[in-house]
Amino acid sequence: MVSATQGRPFPLWQSLAAAVGAMAAAFVGAIAVGIPTVMALGVPKNPGDVGANVIEAGFYLAGAAALIPLLERLSRRSLRSLGVAPLGVRGWQLVAAALLLVLALQFAYQLVLDAFHQQNHVQAGFQHFGVHSPLAVTMVLVTGAVIAPIVEELFFRGLLFNAFAVRMPVYAAALLSGILFGLAHGDPVLFPALAAFGFIQAIVYRIGGNLVVPMIVHAANNALFLSLMMAVPGFH
Known about the structure:
Blueprint: H1 12-41, H2 50-75, H3 79-82, H4 89-115, H5 134-165, H6 170-184, H7 191-208, H8 212-231
């Protein structure tokens, strides 16, 4: 862990300002992409529509465009040095172990929901999810299982977790970044599972020293559940 010195990376206020700036850029990107998309395709009726995913992709890509140079500046390292690099054997082993842990956690939490008669709960934002064309299927997977996991890991683990971890114990930093990850998804029922997922992702990143590990875990998790939602009617 970096010592608490005046010149340490990830200065707190600059890091928080970078987080706000990246989020603002993301919303600007969504608006910039959304206006012509709505004009061309109409207002999206559900999160599986092509237009909805084009707007979501604009949101994430604009946020990433602002976040990446800020992240390199705040960390005083290149993105590769910060931990975006190809995986070796140990990295893939860590991916497999983390993914199994995440899926086990989600299965256990589903049992909890069943016990509290919440088995029909649908994650916030997916209440009217549906896909109606091969293009929509492709867009859902590209946006939800590729773009979103990469950008969210850069934001929550690359920026926020690192900013917290230079000024508090690693587990506390992982917990705080996990809580923020859970809150960002806006679903009180699934918040404990989402926060735990964020916590695990931060620890996995810390162990492996490579952001690609949680990116792949996140992508595989999203790909699995989005595929099931599209293939199995009523799955959520």
